[in-house]
Amino acid sequence: MTDVVLITGAGIGIGRAAALAFAAAGHHVVVTDVLEPEGRAVVAEIAAAGGRAEFHRLDVRSTEAADALVADIEARHGRIDIIVANAGIAHKVPLPELSDDKWDHTLDIDLKGIFRVIRPALPGMKARRKGAIVALSSIMGVAYGWDEHVHYSAAKAGVVGLVRGLGVELARDGIRVNGVAPGYIRTAQLLSKEHSVGPDADKCGEYIPMGRIGEPEDIADVILFLASDAARYMTGQVVVVDGGLLVGRY
């Protein structure tokens, strides 16, 4: 059966790779992002490959927009089967310069943005006793600290708590909630010299046991697994996908 899959931040990076993976598996993908040209390009790429997708602009900071989008999808398609809550930002800000507004901005997108998309979809999922949710955390939220990114690390650690809490609360309703904590992945975020490692990110592979940084597809395939019936007895878990980085650092 074709599932209806809602993905946030699906215009680039891991979100884009996830959209392509779900479409290739035969699902109908609702691509959302604040990056309209990029999001529409993903839909066009899916359509060119014979898949099914649609684009909707969504800023996950807006409760009203998230509620309206979920209602629209359910009205037109009858359901939302899978949510991939991927939208996020990571801005480098030293602690003395980290204002309340900057802190709130990051947590509003990276943590509360996940909650905003999940909440309106729950009544429908509960009524059908079926649903799978995958939220994106980070190794910076499960094991590492990241200097000049404490707001990001705090948000991504919050995602772990959100996944655990919802996994327990929703299990008897037939809804599974899991997370993925990526390591160093070749995305625009990682390649940003201003906010992350920069263009020389491949050098990080020197201290990753598998000898390379990850690709967005490496994460997308795990997301696809967690949302599938192959992971039917998993909930409340955050899976680290980092090429062995965490276990390989002594």
What would you say this structure looks like, in words?
The protein is an alpha/beta fold and about 250 residues long. The protein contains nine helices and seven strands; from the N terminus they run βαβαβαβααβααβαβα. It has a seven-stranded parallel beta sheet with strand order 3-2-1-4-5-6-7, with helices on both faces. Strand 6 (about 175-180), helix 8 (about 215-225) and strand 7 (about 240) form a beta-alpha-beta unit. The mean pLDDT is about 95.
Task: Put the structure in a nutshell.
With 250 residues, the chain is of the alpha/beta class. The chain is built from nine helices and seven strands.
Count of runs of 4 or more consecutive helical residues: 9
Query: Percentage of helical residues?
Result: 40-55%
Task: Summarize the main sheet.
Answer: 7 strands, parallel
**Largest sheet: spatial strand order:** 3-2-1-4-5-6-7
Alpha-beta classification: alpha/beta
Rounded mean pLDDT is 94
Order of helices and strands: EHEHEHEHHEHHEHEH
Distance between the termini: 45 Å
Uncertain spans, ≥5 residues at pLDDT below 50?
none
C-alpha-based Rg, rounded: 17 Å
Indicate the overall shape: globular
For this entry, give a set of tags.
seven-stranded parallel sheet; 7 strands; single chain; 250 residues; alpha/beta; 9 helices
